[in-house]
Structures are given as C-alpha cells and as structure tokens.
Amino acid sequence: MWPVDLRFKVVDNETRLAIAPRLANRVSDTLRRMCAKYQWLPGACIVPAGCLTLLGDSAIDCGGYADVWRAMYHAEGRSAVVALKVFRVYAKDKLRRVRKQKFCEEAILWLRLRHKNIVPLLGADMTLFPVCLVSVWMKYGNISGYLRRFPGEDRLRLLIDVAEGLAYLHGEGMVHGDLKCANILINDERHACIGDFGLSAVIHDPDTIMSITPSPNAVGTLRWTAPEILDPESFGLEHAVATLETDVYSFGMVMWEIFSGHTPYDEYRYDATAQWKILSGVRPERPLHATGMGLSDLVWDLIQRCWHVDRHMRPAADTIV
C-alpha cells in the first residue's frame, strides 16, 4: 500500500515541492482513481480512532446522497465541534461499492484544498459510520440563513470571499459544479467559505475533463445551472459537463440570490418551467431594493456578464476578484 501513501504526500506537499500545477493535477487524479478503484484511503487521510463523539441521535440535515451530523472532535487535549458528512450506504453490493468509491474520490479532492474561503476538511472516518467526511463546523450555517439573521451584513464583502474561493479552486484546476448559496457556509470569523464539492466536483485539464458525476442530470442544481449543461447539443457540445464557465454562471446566480434574498426563478413552481426560461434566455430581474445593499450599476453589469448565454463572454473567476 505504500505507493498510495507516497502519492498522497506528493499531492499534499505540491507547493513545497514546487510541482507544476498541471503535473500536480495529474498526480492527484491518479491518486483519486486508485483510491476509488480499491476503495481505500491513505493513512494520512484518516481521523484517528476514538477522536469523535456524536452530538445528538439524528442527522441535522439531509442531502441527495449524504446526511450531516454534529460531533465533537478530541485531539491533543483540545475539543471542537465538527460536521460529519455521512454517505448513505445501501445493502446492494453494487450501490455500496459505488458510494464507497465516491466517498474516496471526494475525500482526496477536498483534502488537497487549502484556502481561507474553502471549508476545511479534517479527514475521513469509518468508525462511527461506514463512510463519512469530517469537516470544520460552521456555526453560522449557509450564507442565505446568515443574511436572514444579519440583514445588515456587507454582501459585497461576502461575495468577494466567494469569488476568491472560486478563483482558488479554478487555479487548482478544479471545477465545483454545484455552486449555490446552500453550499456556501459562514465561518466563525464571518467569512464565506465554499463547501460541499460532492459528486459534482471535477478535475479540469486542457486535455481532458475527469468528472466524478455519474450522469449529466446530477451536474449542479437546475436553477443555478448554465444553459449549456441543460441542453449541450444546442450549444455545440457533445456532453453536459461542468466547466470553469458554468461555475461562473452559477456565481452570477449566487450574486443575484444574495442581493434579492430569493431562489433564482422562484416564481416558477416547476423545474421544467424554470429550465425552459433558462434556455429561452430569460434571466432574473434586477432587485431594485438592493441598491442600498451594494448592488450598483457596476455590480449588476458583472452579474449579467457572469450569466451570459455565451460561455466565452463570461469573465474568469480571477478577473472577478
């Protein structure tokens, strides 16, 4: 097993070793594939046994393929509340194997990320539950709930946080693929952090797109999703694939969501109607009440460029910052 541990150390220390980003991406992808194939993680990824104690007897939130629990993490004489992302494990062998593979893939992708605007992953645990990821607990919750509690908060500052986190991801050759306010959390210092990479996360490479997503329908959440993912053929594409440009489109929707306080296209009850509107070029209207919140003409112009129907016209994340 030592070659896998060695590869992890290379990826973990890629900055110190001055590995070129493209080479680091390839090494990381090789590690990800190996861990998924053998359903195994390097020892450096595992939280030491006995360090976790559950807080409560039920999950506090449920997602499409995982539940979130609160726990106490004990290490080196200190304790801290953490979040456990618990992957649901099915009885059928094939489904159980697929879930374990996805768990290993997400752990490897997330662990290599280190940025102030990315939710930190502490490691993986397979003692309390068959498969779960351990991350820092964000006591303020997601950005939407935070702004409802603190409506006077500086929205532009929070958006800069998100933009910096997204620019970092893209600089690492990664695409988030499911950017929305529900996946943006507020840390103890009240800064916004991107999290929940999940099945949508992909590695972006000039030669190939290596996706974790099992099917195009699982790429993103519809009302934040770029039109070229919803109907790739109409945009001259062969497949529905999350890209740097589709992340920027979603960021435009996040900006609108933060200023408006609403879910994009919430006036339409059915996703099918919202999808038709998106593909027809209809975008949310400017929330006039948000001018005092920082939604200037300049910011509104940026939002419109982010969700431009032509993906090539959207600004890069580092340009937004």
Automatic annotation (TrEMBL):
InterPro entries named in the record: Kinase-like_dom_sf (IPR011009), Prot_kinase_dom (IPR000719), Ser-Thr/Tyr_kinase_cat_dom (IPR001245), Ser/Thr_kinase_AS (IPR008271), Ser/Thr_Kinases-Pseudokinases (IPR051681)
SUPFAM superfamilies, per database record: Protein kinase-like (PK-like) (SSF56112)
Pfam families named in the record: PK_Tyr_Ser-Thr
PROSITE patterns from the UniProt entry: PROTEIN_KINASE_DOM, PROTEIN_KINASE_ST
Molecular function per GO: ATP binding; protein serine/threonine kinase activity
Positions of the Protein kinase domain: 54-321
PANTHER family linked: PROTEIN KINASE DOMAIN-CONTAINING PROTEIN, SERINE/THREONINE-PROTEIN KINASE TNNI3K-RELATED
Protein name from the UniProt record: Protein kinase domain-containing protein
Species, as recorded: Fomitopsis schrenkii
Organismal lineage: Eukaryota, Fungi, Dikarya, Basidiomycota, Agaricomycotina
